[in-house]
Amino acid sequence: MAVQQHFITVGGLRLHYLERGQGEPLLLLHGYPQNHRCWRHQIEALARRHRVVAPDWFGWGQSERSSNHQADYYTEVERLRQLTQTLGLDHFNLAGHDYGGFLALGFAQRYPRNLKRLAIINSRAHRSFTPAFYRLTAFQCYCARRALLALLFTYGPLYHLHRRTLRNYVPGCFNEAELEDYIGWLRHRSGRRWWTSFFRHYEVAPRRELEEGLANLRLPTAVIWGDADRFCDTTIARDLAARIPNAELTILPGVGHFAVEEAPDAVLRALEQWLARPKTGQPYHDI
After folding, report:
1. Domain named AB hydrolase-1: which ranges (predicted)?
2. What is the Cα–Cα distance from 50 to 123, expressed in whole angstroms?
């Protein structure tokens, strides 16, 4: 089965994406700081029955990094809408991990009629991060919004800081080459400038409007979570499953934040079960 990699322009920004297979469309959104490669273990199997599209989100991977574009939440959700329109995805399945799950939830609440199903994997979703990571992210946002501190970030050791943090996930989630693919762009000043621009617009606080909209979601929803996540606690997962009427919760015991790569077979099984679901809820279970 051929893997097709493409570039398209959406809203004036160049975006890279992988496409494979035919059938009911499935859009896969990666998290921070990854790109479409985080789905490498699942794409081949999912593409046997679906048209799978896995983009590098704007700013990540091979997609354009422009410090001139806004990255506030609803602008990003609207970019997702523009992307799906450009790709001709009118009624599709949407799965997102981490930042991708954050955007997917906002999209589902704004454009529920465009979705067949929704899956959220280890994401801040409607809430936010664990206390330690919340403070770190809030500090990054604070610095990015102040010119002198932002300049220091542009010239600072962002690549090495990311590598030091993520090195703990080698080889459990990704290898050295994959880690370099995820963060190598931070070696360059243009990449660090874009990183600063991204966090200038990012809001770390919980989003009350997303929480209030959970009860209105009526599409089959999968909430898939590694319960050893140091960034996004399982309380988020259980709250999503409790509040979304047609949600199924799958807990992955002992699995961390990068569940898609750390427990690829378990995530694949959960996604396949989700894609096979009828329009009724399913019970909670562990894998």
Report:
1. 25-264
2. 24
